[in-house]
Amino acid sequence: MTPFTYLFLFLMFGSSQGRVVTVPFSPLVRVAGQTVSIRCDVIKYEGPQEQDFEWEVLKGGQTLRLISTFEKNTFTNTVYKDRIRSGAIQLVRLDDNVVELRIANASVADDAIYRCTTLSTDSSISGNYFADVELKVIGDNLKVSPVAAPAVVLEGSELQLRCNASRDLSDRTYLSVTWSIQRGTSPSEDIVTFGPDSVLKPGPTFAQRYANGGMRIDVREGGAFILTLTESLPSDQGTYTCRAQQWVLEGKNSWQSIMGRSVELGEVKVTAIRKNLKVSVEKPTLVSMGDDMRLNCSISADNLPSLGLELDWLVSFTASASPSTLVQMSRDGIVQNASRSVGLTRVKPGLFGLLVHDVDQSSSGFYSCKVRAWIRQSSGLWYPAAEKVSDPVEVQVSLPAPEFKVNLSSAVIPQNTGDPMELDCHVTDVSHLGEGRLAVTWQRGGGTPGDLPASSQLIGGLDHHGDLSAGDAYQQLVKDGQLVLSKVKPDTFKLRFLQMSAAGMGLYSCTVSAWTHSRDGSWQKAGEVRSSGITISWASRKPDLAVKAMVLRNPSSPGGTFEMSCQATVQNLQGEEFSILIQKTPVAGGNTQKIISLSENSILKLEGWSQPDRLDDVILQKVGQGNFQFRMSGAQPSDGGAYFCDVAAWTRESRGGWSRTISAESNRVSLAFSGPGPTANVSIRLDSRSLYTGDSATMVCGLTAQDGPANNNQYEVQLYRTSTSDPDHSDLLISKRQGLPNKSQRCEMKGCEMYQINPWTYRFSVHNLQHSDSGEYHCKVTSWLQNSPLTSTKGYEVVSEKVLLSVKFSVWKSVQVPSALRLWHLPGCWSPLCPHWVHLRPLPPARWHPFSKQTDGHRDGLRPGVLIYDETSVLCF
After folding, report:
1. How far apart are CA 771 and CA 694, in angstroms?
2. Which of 198, 407, 463, 490 has the most crowded Cβ, counting Cβ within 10 A?
3. pLDDT, tens digit (0-9, with 9 covering 90-100), for 458-488
4. With 90 as the cut, is the pLDDT of residue 768 above it?
5. CATH class (in words) of the domain with range 143-271
6. In sequence order, what DSSP letters do the residues of 47-79 get, joined into one string?
7. In this structure, CATH architecture of domain 680-808
8. Architecture of domain 20-138 in CATH?
9. The domain defined by 544-671 carries CATH number 1.10.510.10
10. How many CB atoms lie within 10 A of CB 385?
11. Is 98 exposed, middle or buried (0-12, 13-18, 19+ CB in 10 A)?
């Protein structure tokens, strides 16, 4: 007898509510040539969840059968068969109780009343079983034509976008027009939509602009729709499109779009104010102390009269310094920060004048004007369109300058790298200095003294107050005391390097400046003189680095310690530090592995050593200048190979950082054990390979180690199952290393057990077997070497062969026939889950019906797959 897969018992309760069939509101107006979709829903019905539908056409006093979900081959009238066969008319099921009638390429001939009918599955007739909807197909008369948009507009000017759209007014349809913009490759964005209810709806990013009066729409005779952007913005640049849509009003004030067409109005480029705004300052002549200085700022732009201009005069005392604001004028003509000596006037449109009375040396500097251009919007608000700053012009105020000479001499000249150097800067023949002061700066450059102004590098200096400053490249040397700048006499300045590097060779010079008091009591530079240059150089020798590696300790067996030393020796280099990287070349060849490194700043880093349980097994330390030791604890056979040191010498730069000078690799030393590593085998045995659900399975795993168990060895035993449905994946059922076994969720629920019979034999029991427990089982054994009471190192792994466990299904244990239930005849029950049926009626008491006497194809007969047991139950399989 064939085993039964499922047992279902069916009971029917409850009462019916009235059935409701609905279709869209009439009339349903659509455009010829389009696809028409008519939806039909049914709710509040009894019987199967999935309902059947029939569509009919009522036209000219006739009722023509169109299409059905129940009688698919014989229902359709001959008038529509060709269109249904070609797919031009389809009935699509959207849900159990929803279908949609689709008519492709509809024509005026399809005008009719369409009736949707549902077949009754209710116990009593209640509600409506059909609903009618009138379809009206009108001609395609929507016309859209573009008017080319201007190719270029100026920022702030008006932009008009015109689109012509019309349709046949006799069809009682409505029109909407939408303007859109696409900027580059970005998605198209709607600007504004007018209609279909004569309401203007701006796009999300244009709502505030519309509220501020920045756009308007004019509708003129003949279907002309004009969108005007009152002030063009740089963001208005892009390609514009006009889209017209034809609408009908359906149901309770519900708008439905039935047709739409788009046309491109063209690409518009917006010339930004910042692109044509030009600002310049005229170059003045040399100004003498006590005279008036006049500077003019000239401004030009395409639409200058419509712009609001703000202007700032800026001044800085050096070309590289940040400028400060001297005087300002707002776009309303209000002058700020003016004084008796400084004034600002508007000479004419686009020309602003600066006047400084009675200049002194403090008026010398670099002058520029900054202009901000504003555009006034329709709302009355201003927005900033552009900002530009003119190129600075230098103003020099002439005054009697002190006169003096500057001589540079060498006190100490270096002969080798690392030697000290001293230079003296002398000031002689001083005149017109009075109560002024002297300041000095030191430079280093190349070539001849004539090259110094263009290519010199600032070392540092002492200002007229005696305060020291250092160039960016020399600040760290000053902090470390390697560079000293001092004034040893009123007329003598000294530059001293404690140790010279090869990078310090070059042409040295000093510049002395004279400082005097201005009218307001501040200090100002009155003049400066640069000395001739002195070339500092010496014959440098190339540094040499040698590295030697040596084994200090080699382990005799796995678990031991490996130690090696690396000694670096360098010549022709001073003040060096070393970095070291330990690397290994595997015994079997392949890529070199980086293990651990120590930087020149003594920062330790694990490089390629990433074994989670052995992070503390390697250490690298510095035991002397250029002397390093590397140690590996718990060495394993996999650690064997050729080890070597990669050492680099570093010297400190003038900026305070380190510079890599030279590097070298050591000789190779080997890590190799005196004896072979441990080997082992593991096997698995299954007591019975064919069991039934609910039984227990027992498996035995045996380990044989060639060298026998060591006193400091531990073993981790694991049992895996590979499902026959997923042979590439294995699930861990249970494992044990120390203490109690770790069980998977399957083992916790069903009850797996692990027993250690002796140090090399383990027994596994899997209880309450299910069919899903079928598959291949195998053992894996991992050895662990005990390094200390708290740490251990992973050793070898061995995996057994797989054994197949087959769990058979016990039919009669799984099938229990309930009683005291009413029997129902299910003529539609032929799938394993008996999903649905059309009619239900009770059967009289009956015995088992033999399978051979079942009937098929008869509406009231049993189909294959249904066995009637008695008046209390029915069985489907």
Report:
1. 9
2. 463
3. 999 999 889 999 998 898 889 888 899 999 9
4. no
5. mainly beta
6. S-SS--EEEEEEETTEEEEEEESSSTTTSS-HH
7. Sandwich (2.60)
8. Sandwich (2.60)
9. no
10. 22
11. middle
